Amino acid sequence: MKLYFAPRTRSLRAFWILEEAGQPYEKEQVDFRAGKQSTPAYHAINPMEKVPALTDGEAAVAEVAAICAYVAERYPEAGLAPPPGDPKRGRYLQWLFFHASIEAAFVQKVAKFEMSPADAGLGDFDRVFNAVEETLAQGGPWILGERFSAADVMIGGDLYFGSEGLKILSLTPASAAYVARCKDRPAFQRARVLNQTGA
Ligand SMILES: N[C@@H](CCC(=O)N[C@@H](CS)C(=O)NCC(=O)O)C(=O)O
């Protein structure tokens, strides 16, 4: 596998899931700030021309949530995804896909965009984070309960980004403890260094 990344970006979670998987991978820095990813070669990997993106032989996948799902399924021995048929599978998929609602909630907050919560299909800021916090307040320690999964890379990464990156999210005691558990993971710590420098 090869990860296309740029330092100090949403590449963090791609590094994190790859470090959790514990398998070797290559990395290639994309200098999007200089517009360098707008090459036909990179466009073929990610038509959005954003980072991160991952290639695996002839396969290519972009969007962090999809990268997390892909890596978890590629290396089932790492135990990062409840397999089909497992009762936790439904909630696992729900929390992975919930990243879209969280991103929309961040945009809503930053842009001070008001919309009827009932009409906004992706939810509104308070309702989105109440749903996450209500689940974490059940004791966790992870979003699915006892078992850490790729969904924690997404939800933990979103709470970390919202509270420490964008600084628009106040964490409840339960979600602050959850983010602290995520940050304690050696794979997260390696990913944070990689996302800073690429080295
Ligand atoms: N929805 C994308 C978002 C990726 C994204 O916005 N990446 C930013 C860096 S954090 C980027 O590549 N920006 C450069 C650009 O948009 O040209 C994902 O989940 O991977």
Overall domain count? 2
Task: Please give the count of helices.
Answer: 9
CATH architecture of the largest domain: Up-down Bundle
**Helix share, percent:** 40-55%
Low-confidence stretches: none
The CATH class assignment of the largest domain is Mainly Alpha
**What's the pLDDT, averaged over the residues?**
93
Rg, Å, rounded = 17 Å
Total beta strand runs: 4
Structural class: alpha+beta
- Shape from CA axes? globular
Major sheet characteristics: 4 strands, mixed
Instruction: List the helices and strands in order.
Output: EHEHEEHHHHHHH
Question: What ions, cofactors and ligands are bound?
Answer: glutathione
Largest sheet, spatial ordering of strands: 2-1-3-4
Strand content: 5-15%
Do you know the CATH topology of the largest domain?
Glutathione S-transferase Yfyf (Class Pi), Chain A, domain 2
N- and C-termini, Cα separation = 17 Å
Question: What is the gist of this entry?
Answer:
With 199 residues, the protein is an alpha+beta fold. It has nine helices and four strands; from the N terminus they run E-H-E-H-E-E-H-H-H-H-H-H-H.
How would you describe this protein?
There is one protein chain. The protein is an alpha+beta fold and 199 residues long. The chain folds into 2 domains: 87 residues, Glutaredoxin (3-Layer(aba) Sandwich); 97 residues, Glutathione S-transferase Yfyf (Class Pi), Chain A, domain 2. Helices cover 51% and strands 8% of the residues. The protein is built from 9 helices and 4 strands. Strands 2-1-3-4 form a 4-stranded mixed β-sheet, covered by helices on one side. The radius of gyration is 17 Å and the shape is globular. 38% of the residues are buried. The model has no long low-confidence stretch (mean pLDDT 93). Glutathione (GSH) binds next to loops.
